[in-house]
Amino acid sequence: MQDLKRIFAYIKPYRRDLLLAVVLVCVECVFEMLIPILMTDIIDVGVPNHDIPFLLNQGIKMILCAALALVTGLLYARFAARAAYGFGAELRKAEYERLQTYDFQNLDHFSTPSLVTRMTTDVTVMQNAINGGLRPLVRSPIMLFLGIGLAFLLNARLALVFVITAPVLGVILALVVHKVSPLYNRQQKAVDFVNGRVQEALTAIRAIKAFVRGKHEEEVFDDANRELTDVSRTTFGHASLNLPAFQAVMYTAIVCIMWFGGKFILVGSMTVGDLTAFLSYVLQVLNSIMMFSNVFLMLTRSLASAHRIREVLTEKPALANPEHPIEEIPNGQVDFENVTFSYAADSEKAALSDITLHIPAGATVGVIGGTGSAKTTLVQLIPRLYDATSGTVRVGGHDVRDYDLTALRDSVGIVLQKNVLFSGTIRENLLWGNEDASDEALWDACRKACADEFLERMPKGLDTDLGQGGVNVSGGQKQRLCIARTLLKHPKVLIFDDSTSAVDTATEGKIRRALSALTDVTKIVITQRVTSVISADLIVVLDDGRIHAVGTHEELLEKDPIYQEIYALQQKGGAGHGEAV
Q1: What is d(CA 134, CA 147) in angstroms, rounded to the nearest whole number?
Q2: Global pTM?
Q3: Which of 9, 43, 247, 313 could be bridged to 273 by S-S, CB 3.0 to 4.6 A?
Q4: Which fold has domain 334-571?
Q5: Secondary structure of residue 147 in the 3-state scheme
C-alpha cells in the first residue's frame, strides 16, 4: 500500500475533480435507492386501490429519480475522466523527469523496454484504476450499507440471507485475489519482454533484411508473444472465476428470498410490494459486492504496476553535486591519479586498473588499444558519466566530483562511439550544441567537421529533415554532423570516441587539420587507426584496462611491442608477423 500512497500523491492537481466525482457517485446512489421505495407504494397502495393519480405521481417521481441518477452519472464520468487522465499525465511526466536525472549507472538497473512499459502500460493500468475503479469503489460500500439497512427495515428475518452470503462471497474474493496477485507481476514482465523484441527488431531492421533473418525474428517474437498470451490467459482465467462464483451465490440468495418471502406473504407478515423492494435491494447489494470484488482485482493489478512505477520514481541518481560545487572549469588539463573503475561493486575484475596519466591543457592525445581494452571507459570518467571506484580524476586541476555536473559536462564535449541524431532538421540537431548559435556559427562548425560538403548539395541545407534517428544521411555524414554539434559547445576538453570510423581517410585528415587550429582545447582521440593519432602530442596504449605505454608515435614505434604490432598490421599488411590483413 506504500506504493499506492506514493503514486497517488501525483493526483494532487486533480483533487477537486476527484472529490466532485466521489460526491456525484454518492448522490447517484441516493437517487437509485429511492426508486424501490417508490415502487413499494405503487404495488401496495396504487395498484390495489386503482388510484391512477397516485400511480402517475409515484411514476413521475421514479422517472425524476432515474433522470437525476443519469445526469449525476454522466457528470461523474466527466470529472472522473479528467482526474484519471490528468493523473496519468502527471505520472508519465514525473517518470520522464526522473529519467533525465539518471546517470549511466542508474540506467544499468533497468532495461529500455522495461522503462517504456513502466511509462506506458503501467501508467495506463493506474489510470484505468481511477477511471474504471473509482465508481464501484465509492458506490459499492454506500449501496451495500444502504441496501442492507433498508432490507432489515423491510424484513429483519429475511435479511439474514445477507449474513450467510456475505462471508461466502468474501472467501471467494480472497481466494481469487490470492491466486491472481503474483500473476499480474509476471504479466507485466512478459509485456517488457515483448516490447524488447519489438524495439530490437525495429532498431536492427536493416541487419535483419541484409541477413534474411525475417523468419527467425518472427519465430523469436512468436515465442515472446506466446509467453505473454499464456500468462495473460492464466491470469484472466483465474480472475474470471470471480463472476460465475458470485452469480451462483447471488441467484441462490434470490431463490431463498423468493421461497421464504413467499411464505411470509402467505401468512400475512409481508406484502408483495415489500418483497419486490426487498429483491431490488438484494440485487443492488449483491451487485455492489461483485463490483467491489472487481475493484479488488483491479487494485491487485494496480499494486504490481504501482510498485514498478515507484521503483523508477525512487531510484536515486548515482552521481550528485557537492554542497558547494565549482561552477567554472579553468582549463582543459586532465589528470588520472591511481584510478581504478568497476561497473559493478561485485565485479571479479576491474574495467580499469591503476591508471595514472597527465594530459596538459591544449594537448592532442591519442588513445589506442585492442577491442575490450577499456578505451571508452577511460574517457567516460572525464565528464563524470561514471565515478571512479578508487583514485581521482581531475579536470582543470580540480577533482571532477567537486564540480557542478552541468558545468563540467558543458565544458567536456564528447562525440560518442554510437552516433545519435534525433528526429527533426539538421539545424535542430546542431542547436543541441548551442541553442543560441547563429547560422554563421553553424556553418563554421560544419566546415570544421567537413559536413558542409554534403550540406551544400542538399536543397534545404540546414533545414533538411533527417527523419527518425537520422535515417536520411549515411553513417559518415552522421559522424560529421555529430562532430559539428559538439564543436558548437566550445568545450575545454574535446573527446572523439572512434567518431571518424565511417569517414574516409582524406576527409578524416581535413577534420584533423581543422581541429589542430583549436589550440586552447584539449583533444582526446580514441581510435583503431594509427593514422588518426600519428601526429598526436601523446599516444596512450591501453591493454586489458591498464596503461601499457605512453609516448609519441616515434617513441612507441621504437619500444612498444603492442603499438608496433598495430602499426605493422595497418601500415605494412602484417609483414614480419606472419599474417596479412
Answers
A1: 20
A2: 0.70
A3: 43
A4: Rossmann fold (3.40.50)
A5: helix
